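hi! just following up on the protien thing from before. the input was this:
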Amino acid sequence: MAIQFEDFVEAIEPWHRAFVLNTHELLMTAGYKLKIEDKASGLFASYSHPKTKRSLLNFLFRKSGMLTRLYPGRVDGGIPDNLTPLMEKEIDKAPACKLCSEKCTKGYKFSIRGQAYDKCRYNAFLFTVTEENKPILSGWIQKEAEQ
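and the predicted 3d structure came back as:
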């Protein structure tokens, strides 16, 4: 049986629901497709562009709470300049791009405040969702959805 969006929303902590609902509405209006799966750590939602089939955003759960994983289309000049210290720390601790296999999509090369990064595509922009970073994430997601 397919997992419904309402089931996903029910699994989210109440203080994150408005963020998820607003993000969902924005991406669905922009034509993105939603896929929800039941993973070992909980429900997992992925939004992909209908034409390119490329993922833009995942919502996932870990013991530490809800996370978002962004796959921005461009990082050169596309990364917000107001990242929180936690967001910068999460980027910093992400593994370097090692081109894992022949099928691996190359990672991201970018700089933040003069610091150069070469990070794995799958963890470069994996952020814990907090009240402080929700507005930053929302703005970034909106900007990506409009491209």
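Residues 5-90+124-145 form one domain.
The chain is about 30% helix and 30% strand.
cheers
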